[in-house]
Write a structure and sequence with these properties.
Shape: globular
Number of strands: 10
Number of helices: 12
Strand order of the largest sheet: 7-6-8-9-5-10
Mean pLDDT: 80
Radius of gyration: 23 Å
Largest sheet: 6 strands, parallel
Strand content: 5-15%
Length: 336
């Protein structure tokens, strides 16, 4: 990998210091980041100090923290050696996963993503950043139907769309169908300006955003026009059979029991289906049962159906989002 851990003469400070050598100064500069901001992030998240000494980095701190930080630095450097760039999210993901995302990451992905399929889209590569995300992605490839349940910001929908785009690009499916219940619109939908598409598009925007992250805008538009990508409210799924498609139902906690059963039975030959939702954000009218909770109860243990759960620890947005979710969970527990 081009990195070696040096063993200097024994000194008292050696007990709390690990020294790494990085032969390519250009890559070392990118590893450290502008104004050493990458090093600062690693220091903050792992509880160590990182000192620059020429083409070496000295990691100072307790041994478990040193080992973790050193593994992160090695993994990120290997990623740079492979011609990739690193971001704050990559650093956070490497730390969360507890292993370097380095030169051996491709071998792991080949094993993880069934027969060489990588989570690589037209615009960017996508890697799970937590163990829960890793298990979720693996299950989406391994099962015909997968549920992702947990709070906002944990990557449930984003990763599902990324897997869908990956499978679409590889030819494993012929189209992508993305859907959400438009419950927020309610009876007010008819009073919104424009045709039906213009009325419901605001509620579908998060799905458009995810797609545009993975595919060039012109290609998205062309595929939408050709109906190879569909983004539609849940109500539009009735009466259809979705074959050779990757189908995602987002915000599934807002589907009624009847809607959920209707949607799940749309699954056709050669298709994959993903259902994502947050049980704490149900917008259905009071007294209306959530179809997500019912499906979770009924389908547990059914062959070909997987369930993956996320917590505040899997939030990959701003770190404050995770703390906000934890605070709300603590308050609910106290109230209960």
């Amino acid at each position: 990998m081009g990195i070696s851990a040096l063993t200097p003469p024994t000194r008292p400070e050696d007990i709390v210091e690990t020294v790494l050598e990085f032969p390519d100064n250009r890559l070392l500069i990118e590893l450290c980041g502008e104004y050493d901001r990458n090093l600062a992030q690693i220091e903050h998240q792992t509880g160590v100090h990182v000192l620059r000494r020429g083409n070496r980095l000295a990691v100072v701190g307790d041994k478990p923290c040193r080992d973790q930080a050193a593994a992160v630095l090695r993994g990120l450097y290997a990623k740079l050696e492979a011609g990739k760039h690193i971001s704050a999210g990559d650093i956070d993901g490497t730390i969360r996963m507890g292993r370097p995302q380095g030169s051996d990451a491709r071998e792991e992905q080949i094993e993880l993503f069934s027969g060489g399929i990588e989570l690589r889209t037209r615009r960017k590569g996508v890697e799970p950043r937590t163990e829960a995300q890793k298990a979720y992605v693996a299950n989406l490839f391994a099962n015909e139907m997968g549920f992702g349940i947990g709070p906002a910001g944990t990557g449930k929908t984003y990763l599902a769309v990324a897997v869908g785009v990956t499978m679409f690009i590889s030819g494993a499916v012929e189209r992508i169908v993305l859907s959400r219940p438009a419950v927020e619109a309610g009876e007010r939908l008819g009073f919104l300006p424009g045709d039906m598409k213009e009325k419901v598009d605001p509620y579908m925007q998060p799905l458009y955003d995810a797609l545009n992250d993975f595919l060039p805008a012109k290609q998205v538009q062309k595929l939408l026009e050709e109906k190879r990508i569909e983004i539609a409210p849940l109500a539009f799924m009735r009466g259809r059979t979705l074959s050779n498609a990757f189908v995602v139902l987002d915000e599934a906690q807002n589907a009624t029991s009847m809607q959920m059963k209707m949607f799940l039975t749309r699954l056709g030959e050669g298709s994959r289906m993903v259902i994502t939702g947050d049980r704490t954000q149900v917008d259905l009218p009071r007294g209306t049962a959530s179809g997500l909770a019912e499906a979770e109860r009924i389908l547990k243990g059914v062959k070909g159906v997987s369930f993956n759960y996320f917590t505040s620890k899997d939030v990959v947005r701003h770190p404050l989002v995770g703390r906000i979710i934890e605070a709300y969970e603590a308050d609910e527990a106290h109230q209960g």
